[in-house]
């Protein structure tokens, strides 16, 4: 309000000053005579002032017209001028509008529309580092893989966009199943941006799938150095890779190197069951039973597993069942409440023909968490105590429909594996296998069930009147064969 009032007062003051000045000029006496073309022209003071003003205006207008002519010449010559900047801003505005519309179309799933907007944006902007990426992603969305690959290859020509181009082609090769080319591209992308998390993970997975354990360990170390991986997780996964590398060296016939690598893998992650087994086997070959037992007990205390017990038995393969039961006390006193420990005790007592003690070890487990394995052990106990075939057959029938017990299961896809592996064979996940209960309905038997004799003696296979009786006969024959081999 006050500002508006001040403006009005200032305007009135200017008008009054101009009026006062004009009045003074009109009241002034005198004139000036100017000779124009041989003729004398007389001008009053006011006329001279008006003429001066008109002259200044004409001079200013002349300079403006000259500047406009020069600018037009420069514009036509291709030089940057205010006119060219105006048209450039206009083109840039239209280009960014098309780019924005293309990004919205891409987010909406309209691939063809996004490609059209990207072409329009390129026409106005002439900035391929922006529009090519939109074109490539839109072509992928529209299913035009050829255009997408061609556009990604254009991005390789510029240092600023080379990583994006390599990554885009790499993802295409992965979708096509060309893992060899994808691995080479992942290595190139990793060299360009070693801190890129997705590239690190992709390279690590591809190296693990191709059994390039040495390269995978280098990639894993890079993840640790860049802060993308916790130290404890790195230690565990490095142990997995070291174990896999040891197995590869062993397959190549380099036994000494494989043994050292297995011991190193166990040192890095003592709770890794396959590493503990392989390290213990290495110590057994070196006749170092004490070190083998120490490794196995340490792993058993973390996670009891049949493979650990089987390797512990291999330390003294020729001992009597009674001596074995006594030696295994160093293992069974650890994790005494574990189902695996209870089943191990039952199996050991069955082998020693102490069936009442075997029953005491497993009765509670069978009642609370029946599985195919502990029910089969109970059938063996009944068989050893001389129970009727009908009783034994009843336990085996229960075993057919019971849960299978812990197995190696992928945490990503829930795929069940018969043995541990560093990479899931179904989803290619790295270090995703864990020893746990499978989902309901799975029927695969766990590995390591045959580690010790489960059933003593043999009965003749009955005439198969049904599918269940056929399976029961196979169970008796398999377990009897396992006892003979042991």
UniProtKB/TrEMBL annotation:
**CC per GO annotation:** membrane
Query: What keywords tag this UniProt record?
Result: Membrane, Transmembrane, Transmembrane helix
What is the annotated localization of this protein? Membrane
Reading the lineage from the top rank, the first entry is Bacteria
Query: What Pfam families does the database record attribute to this sequence?
Result: HemY_N (PF07219)
Main subcellular location of this protein, as a coarse class: membrane
Give the protein name, as stated in the record: Tetratricopeptide repeat protein
From which organism does this entry originate? Octadecabacter temperatus
Question: What phylogenetic lineage does the species belong to?
Answer: Bacteria, Pseudomonadati, Pseudomonadota, Alphaproteobacteria, Rhodobacterales
